[in-house]
Write a structure and sequence with these properties.
The protein is α/β, with parallel strands linked by helices. It has one domain. About 35% of the residues lie in helices and about 10% in strands. Strand 1, helix 6 and strand 2 form a beta-alpha-beta unit.
C-alpha cells in the first residue's frame, strides 16, 4: 500500500519550491519541459500552479492505469495522457527525490544549499515494476534507499544544509528503455542540459549564500568537464584515485561553484573501493559536510 504525503506536507513542499524559485522564467521552464514539447518531459510540475487536488487526481489515475495490465508502450502513453489531463507531472516540482529532500531539509532561515546531481530519472514505465511514480507517494527517496546514502553527505541527512536533488537530464526515459547509460536522441542535448543547470544555479544563488554541487557517475562527470576550470584529463575513477578529495571549480552562470564528482552509488562496488571511499570522505570534509555513511549492499 502506498504511503502518501498529507495535504499539509504537500503545502510545505510546494512552499519550499516557491521560496527557492520565486518565479520560473522561460529558460528554466524550457529546461524542465513544463510546456511538454519533449515526448517524456512529465517528471516535473509547475509548483507555482499545482494544487493538492490535481496531484491527488493524478495519483488516483496512475493507480488505475497500473491495475489495467497494459503493455509497456501503451502504459507509457496512458500515464503521459493522464499527466497532461491533470495538469501536473509525477512529482510536485523537479522529481520525487527533490520533493522529499525539501520536506526533510528546507527551512527559510537556511543559507546553504547542496545540489546532488544525478544523470537521469528512470523510464516512465520500468518493466517488471508494478507501481508507477506518483506525485504523492512518500516512500521512494534518498532517506529510504540505503545503497545511495554513502553518496550523500551527513549535512543533508541532519538538515544542516538544504538538499536539492537534480538530474542533469530532467525528463523520463521512454517506456521500457534502459535504466542507465548515456543519452540518445531524447529531445535535449547535454549542452542544453548544462545551460539548464546554469539557470538552476543562477536562481538558487540568489536565495542561498553557499551553493555547491556533488555529481554522481561518469556520464555526468563527462558532461560537466567542459565547464570545470583546469579539469583533470582523467576518468572519474582516475580523478578519484589520483587527486582524492580535491574540490573543483564549476563555472556556471558567471559564478564559481564548488564541485565534487563521485561515482554513482547504484553500481555495485563503487563504495567498497578504498580509494574511492577516501576521495568521498576527503571531499565531503573539504566542503564542510561531514563524513559519509558506511557503504551497504542493501
Amino acid at each position: 500500500m502506498d504511503v502518501l504525503y498529507e495535504r499539509g506536507e504537500v503545502e510545505r513542499i510546494l512552499t519550499a519550491y516557491k521560496d527557492i524559485f520565486p518565479s520560473i522564467g522561460t529558460s528554466l521552464s524550457k529546461y524542465w519541459g513544463l510546456s511538454r514539447e519533449r515526448p517524456w518531459s512529465y517528471v516535473t510540475t509547475d509548483f507555482h500552479r499545482a494544487t493538492y487536488e490535481q496531484l491527488k487526481l493524478l495519483h488516483d489515475r496512475t493507480r488505475a492505469i497500473d491495475a489495467m495490465g497494459l503493455p509497456t508502450n501503451e502504459k507509457g502513453v496512458a500515464l503521459r495522457d493522464a499527466s497532461a489531463a491533470c495538469g501536473v507531472g509525477f512529482s510536485m516540482g523537479i522529481c520525487p527525490w527533490t520533493d522529499h529532500l525539501l520536506l526533510k531539509t528546507y527551512s527559510p532561515e537556511k543559507k546553504s544549499l547542496t545540489i546532488l546531481l544525478g544523470h537521469d530519472w528512470y523510464p516512465i514505465v520500468v518493466e517488471n515494476r508494478e507501481r508507477s511514480d506518483s506525485p504523492l507517494r512518500n516512500g521512494d527517496a534518498l532517506h529510504y534507499t540505503p545503497k545511495y546514502m554513502p553518496a550523500a553527505p551527513p549535512a543533508i541527512f541532519d538538515g544542516s544544509t538544504v538538499g536539492l536533488f537534480l538530474n542533469l537530464y530532467p525528463d523520463y526515459r521512454p517506456p521500457g528503455d534502459g535504466k542507465c547509460g548515456a543519452l540518445h536522441t531524447y529531445g535535449i542535448t547535454y549542452k542544453e542540459c548544462l545551460d539548464g543547470l546554469d539557470e538552476v544555479v543562477e536562481a538558487t544563488s540568489a536565495r542561498f549564500q553557499t551553493v555547491r554541487v556533488i555529481s554522481w557517475g561518469a556520464n555526468v562527470w563527462t558532461a560537466m568537464r567542459a565547464r570545470v576550470r583546469n579539469a583533470p584529463p582523467l576518468t572519474l575513477m582516475g580523478y578519484a584515485k589520483g587527486r582524492p578529495g580535491e574540490i573543483l571549480t564549476f563555472e556556471s552562470a558567471g559564478k564559481e561553484i564548488e564541485y565534487l564528482p563521485i561515482a554513482h552509488p547504484s553500481h555495485p562496488g563503487n563504495f567498497h573501493q578504498a580509494a574511492h571511499l577516501s576521495h568521498v570522505s576527503l571531499g565531503f570534509e573539504a566542503m564542510g559536510l561531514g563524513l559519509p555513511e558506511k557503504s551497504t549492499t542493501n
